[in-house]
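B., you asked whether I could sanity-check this one before it goes into the benchmark set. Here's the sequence:
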Amino acid sequence: MNKNIFLLLTFTLLISSFAVISGCGKYAAQYSAPVIIERYPAAGAGGRGSGETLWVKFSKSMDTSGFSTSEIGSKIKFPIDMTATATFYPDITPEIIWSDDDTVLTMTNFFFIANPGNRVHIQASKEAIQDKNGQFLTENADLFNYTLAGLYVTDRYPTIDATVTNTPITIVATFDNPVNTGTFLAGTSESHTAGSWIPASPSITWSNSDRTVSIEDISWEASLGNVVDITYEAMDIYGNIVTNGQLFRYKLP
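And here's what the prediction gave me:
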């Protein structure tokens, strides 16, 4: 056989083999089951809040039509080792959000009645979530498995170290658990440099099933650049007590 013809045939065979192997690899990847590659809270995490935003990232783009807020009750399950109790407050609607590429599922406004150390364990029911090629997660796949903390602030306005104008402002903080509002006290810390708040006894209101406190229309006796640093004492409805907790810290311009 002519040497040039032999080399040409060998090269053609190699190219064909590579194409077949490459095609098989793409086929296998396309039709393999999706897996969770990242999540928050991390598996086994501790000290999370009751109303944390939860999210999972999948290895592939998922069929988002099969997992929506309206179907959440039939799509997830709580195994018997979950010691927290899922609850949905009347004025808060759970929400499910998918990322633009359909790989990240975010779940917000999911609250749990629990003592510190209670476990949140959420699984996807069989055939609850599938990718765009119809491949499902493994049966009863773990979405979340973490433990809860005691009472602490999950959200606040102004945010920590924000700069605000020295005019009347309503400051708002949300806790992870419902608060026994009769135990709530707010005061200033040693690092507070802004003087006394005006009025001396500001109006305090509660909302969001006693999880959100608003201290309304306050001003400060202060020079520009002073720091507003407010701490709190409180007990939640489960008996968790916090003293000298960080409620707010923000700066005046």
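One thing to flag: The chain has two domains: 33-147, 153-251. Otherwise nothing jumped out at me.
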